[in-house]
Automatic annotation (TrEMBL):
The lineage of its organism: Bacteria, Pseudomonadati, Bacteroidota, Sphingobacteriia, Sphingobacteriales. The chain crosses the membrane at residues 30-48, 60-81, 101-124, 136-154, 174-194, 221-242, 254-278, 298-316, 336-365, 377-400, 420-437. It comes from the Bacteria. It is a multi-pass membrane protein. This is Gluconate:H+ symporter. Keywords: Cell membrane, Membrane, Transmembrane, Transmembrane helix, Transport.
């Protein structure tokens, strides 16, 4: 009954948004309350569950999305995105721009959390789309596939890192195996699948549509690339720092502080304000107007993402994940597939890839030693399963839909299908690799 209730709520949500044309924020809020009541959460606890879900989601994303939008708007209006696009096209040629973006997405995605990576690469995708009149979904989805794969498969992202520790796996080997599986997964789910999406019309957010500038008006290539990639550089340095084995407590705390994603974005925005703004003769008042416009453009997106967090939370608080886990454990399935399946069903039901991964890990952890499973491969199997079928209960679904300004139908066809391909191809890669190293 719990699974049936979730299915009914998801169908209701889709109908409210696509058929009844209800604002997604209101639809998500309404369905969250209905789901909470239907799943047995006490009347006096439903509101608290909704508020907790919204607060937790915004607590981790608000600063990053807002600062990322400001930086993205600055990169677009200053001509930096146009300069980066010009350099990429001249280096690889216009025909290969999709592959250049995939490579950039993979490099950016390794050290960055998904939300940060998304708001950083979107301005670049849209800038190239506008300048060269290329379909935004066609060139953008493969880049986002690269981000998604790194988020689900590769440390230092939260879920795979936590799974490595839980399974006592080897961080380095997990990363190596993850990259081996990631490359074909990205190619198949990204550029190759995107060829079927050329007819999807996308009118991305106007906030990233900058006026065409002359060469003299644009910043130089180094300034453009360095400012855009500064968050990546800072996070990569922070990720590498622990391997230096420095014992000084103050230095460790300072690096931890500076390496926090929110602080990284703040530092990057401050640097960009000077490098792309004040140093090039812009007044602070004009730059402030740019930042205000950026926040106005993403206000609705923030509300929708917050409401998707509320929906996720009522599903978690209802104990649905435990019900799913108990039912699946009775099946006689190979452990690597079992881990993927548990993560996949929880992901589909709850929407959170991190929750799906960690819940599945707790269930299959005893199987690792019992069946002598390679723990590095189990990390990747669960990571792949935690990405499957992103839909209306996932904040990433709405982030993509609203930024690319697509219908739910086209979002399901592009985003949801891409995520599902990543999950399935990832599992196949794990099973193939298990033949050789398991």
């Amino acid at each position: 009954m719990a699974l049936l209730t979730i299915l009914i709520c998801i169908v209701l949500l889709v109908l409210l948004v696509s058929w009844a044309k209800v604002n997604p924020f209101l639809a998500l809020l309404l369905v969250s309350v209905i789901a909470g009541l239907a799943l047995g959460i006490p009347l006096d606890k439903v509101s608290a569950s909704v508020q907790k879900g919204m607060g937790d989601t915004m607590g981790s994303l608000l600063i990053i999305i807002c600062l990322g939008a400001m930086l993205g708007k600055l990169i677009a209006t200053s001509g930096a995105a146009q300069k980066i696009a010009d350099v990429l096209v001249k280096t690889g040629g216009e025909k290969n721009i999709q592959w250049a973006l995939v490579l950039a997405g993979f490099i950016v995605g390794i050290p960055l959390f998904y939300g940060i990576g998304f708001v950083l690469v979107v301005p670049l995708i849209f800038s190239i789309s506008y300048k060269y009149k290329i379909n935004a979904v066609y060139i953008g989805l493969p880049m986002l596939a690269a981000l998604s794969v790194t988020h689900g498969f590769l440390p230092p992202h939260p879920s795979p890192t936590a799974l490595v520790k839980l399974f006592h796996a080897d961080m380095g080997m997990t990363l190596v195996y993850g990259i081996i599986i990631a490359i074909p997964t990205i190619i198949l789910a990204g550029p190759l699948y995107a060829r079927t999406l050329k007819n999807i019309k996308s009118e991305p957010l106007a906030t990233f549509r900058a006026a065409e500038l002359s060469t003299a008006e644009m910043p130089n290539a180094f300034n453009s690339f360095f400012t855009a990639l500064l968050p990546v550089i800072l996070l990569m340095l922070a990720a590498a720092y622990p391997h230096l084995n420095i014992k000084d407590e103050f230095t460790n705390k300072l690096v931890a502080f500076v390496g926090d994603p929110a602080i990284v974005m703040l530092i990057a925005l401050i640097f960009g304000t000077f490098s792309l703004g004040i140093a090039r003769g812009k007044k602070m008042s004009a730059l402030s107007d740019v930042y205000v416009d950026a926040l106005k453009d993403i206000a609705v997106i923030l509300l929708i993402i917050a409401a998707s967090g509320a929906f996720k939370q009522v599903l978690i608080d209802s104990g649905v994940s435990s019900i799913i886990a108990d039912q699946i454990q009775t099946l006689n399935i190979p452990p690597l597939i079992m881990g993927w399946l548990i993560a996949a069903i929880i992901r589909i039901s709850l929407g959170s890839s991190t929750v799906a991964g960690l819940t599945a890990a707790a269930i299959v952890a005893p199987m690792i030693s019992k069946y002598h499973i390679n723990p590095n491969l189990m990390v990747l199997s669960i990571g792949a399963g935690s990405l499957v079928l992103s839909h209306v209960n996932d904040s990433g679904f709405w982030l993509y839909k609203e930024y690319f300004n697509l219908s739910i139908k086209d979002t399901l066809r592009s985003w949801t299908m891409m995520e599902t391909l990543v999950a399935v191809i990832g599992l196949v890669g794990v099973l193939v690799l298990n033949v050789f190293v398991g």
